[in-house]
Amino acid sequence: MKDIHKKPLPIGYSWRSSKWFILSTVAIALFAETFLYGFLVPILGEMLQNRLDVQPSKAQQLTSAVLALHGTLAVISGPIIGHFADKYQDRKTALLLSLGWCIIGTCMVASAHSVPMLLLGRVMQGIAGSAVWIVGFATVADTISPSHIGFALSMMMSCANTGTISGPSIAGLLLEATGYWITWSVPLLVLTIDFIARVCMIESPASPPSTPKDGPTETESLLPSSEEQIPPTIGNFWHIMLCNGRIITCLLIIVMGTTMSTSFDATLPLHVEEKFGWGPSATGLLFAGLVVPGVLIGPLAGWVRDRIGTRSPTVVCAILEAVAFGLMGIAGSDIPWASAYAMGKPLYITSIVAVGTLRPFVSGIAPVELAATAKAIQEKSPGIFGPKGGMSRVFSMMDVAASLGMMLGPILGGLLKEIIGYKCMSWTWALLYLLLAAAAMCFLRSESIDTTPHSEEEG
């Protein structure tokens, strides 16, 4: 008689609720978000001049405002999104709502005939993008076992970086070859694929909907256990996390990584033109050297983290990044062997590629460590972050840290280059990475998840 009351499984339940499909859905969502962010960059100039009739004297200021709006909104909305995502923890609904906002915002941006409509569209895109990062990473953390979370989150970062690379390049090529509206059909196609994947996804594969929940099973006691009678003590999430050395170190790594990355946007093009006489095509290849190695090596960095922990690779690679920044500052300087007419050009290119290669082992594994630290705290004190857990709020901190770095990078990079010069600016980044290496040595752990007891003390 019990079988009569069981709910039938949805069509395709086995593959729609599988880990690979959930991860693929999140990967597509992250790709779509970064793709849309970069897609606007080469189109924005034509939009401002030809569609919005913005005066050339105000174009640069408005361009900076439109691009900075995304990061600013993430800083403001991230904690709010994380709070409500943990309170209700319906990941699929949250992802669908964010996609709805993104589609409306994208249509507003594409069809904007006024600056306020363009800004409002970017506001909606920014809030939706922040939700995708927070809810998407929380979904991965809830789906994957701790022993494989490093590889899984690194794969997500690689997919996001792929969108960062492909967005501007595809938009620029299509705009010249096909025209404005055909160009905008590409992000709409990406959003359509994203929508189909999110609708098909089924959460919580470990708890199929056919499982009866109306009463206790034959092996369960009819009386509640003592653990069920005593509610867990709920602590202040922000106080607990922001007083944890591992968490603070991870957030500093994320802020530093995004600050350094975005500082190149404001400093690299002018510097290589002044020192080496390189034009836009060479500059584009240098930016590819910063991003492409991370896309390819990111999963390897996550796998290393799963096997040997975070401390050793972070410390070693942060020191090597400091060396790369030091050499980057020397390249093209007055030192004879490093001048632009000697080894300056190959030295600069090598330094750029080295930074892009090493970055996944430093800033790329910080999100994994954030998730592992939060899970370790909850295993030590079950229920401390509430009955729904705190994973969304964990990744909201990551989103805020990354957005803060996106805001600071161009400003600090431009100021340092103007005040103390490109060489000293690079040496400043080198010094900061040495300090990050010291912090990682003090606070991050060296053991892999598989060998770390659940009751470990947090440092």
Automatic annotation (TrEMBL):
An example molecular function term from Gene Ontology annotations: transmembrane transporter activity
How does the protein's chain sit in the membrane according to the entry?
Answer: Multi-pass membrane protein
Q: Where is this region: Disordered?
A: 206-228
Q: What's the domain of life for this entry?
A: Eukaryota
GO CC, sorted alphabetically, is:
membrane
* Compartments it resides in: Membrane
Q: Where are the transmembrane segments?
A: 20-44, 64-82, 94-113, 247-264, 284-303, 315-335, 394-415, 427-444
What InterPro entries does this protein's entry cite? MFS, MFS_dom, MFS_trans_sf, MFS_Vesicular_Transporter
Major facilitator superfamily (MFS) profile domain location is 22-449
In terms of one coarse class, where is the protein primarily found? membrane
Q: Does the keyword rRNA processing apply?
A: no
Chain intervals with Low complexity compositional bias: 218-228
Which species does this protein come from? Penicillium vulpinum
Entry keywords, A to Z: Membrane, Transmembrane, Transmembrane helix, Transport
In terms of Pfam families, this protein maps to: MFS_1 (PF07690)
| Name of protein | Major facilitator superfamily (MFS) profile domain-containing protein
Q: Does the keyword Cell inner membrane apply?
A: no
